[in-house]
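Let's sit down with a protein and look at its sequence and fold side by side. Once you have written the record down, we can walk along the chain together.
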Amino acid sequence: WGAKPELHRNFEEYLGRNEDFVLEFAGDESWWSIAEPYWLTSVWKKTEYKDKLVLSVPMLPKLDDVSVEKGAAGEYDGWFKLLAKHLIENELEHSVIRLGWEMNGGWYKWSASGKETEFVQFFRNAVNAMRSVEGGDFKFFWNPALGWINASIPNCYPGDEYVDYIGLDIYDHCWADGTYPI
């Protein structure tokens, strides 16, 4: 939907009821696009959807010198604190944070492939960093993908104390018997 609240209102009219949540993505071009998504907060805080926001937050930007291992060591905690402060300052303190989605695939910089333990620690660090900022009431969404799997989904789970919602992204899947081993 891309920061276009009027599309949500149109969709609600089609549904005949209010949406439960709206989904948006922070950019992954730099740490600043993750920690201070100015376009996101300038749009969503002005709408009736501000308390329904699910924000997909990349765990790493598209830079050469970043890694899941550095995140596990706590090197990026400050960026997640900055994100929390930015959301709180812009009246988005009730956001659901969809952190590092599809970690079990190989297409994002924060892929847990071969580093599931480090991914889990990085996820926990980011959650702890955001929770440490006064005024926040964030919930956290853990979201693997079904399909091409490079990492063990169970081994990527950070624990119930770090996860409020669980989802699953499913693409191009046939549910006919024998088509995919679940």
Notes: The first helix runs from residue 5 to 15. DSSP finds six helices and seven strands in the chain. The helical segments are 5-15, 31-35, 38-44, 68-72, 77-89, 116-131. The mean pLDDT is 87.
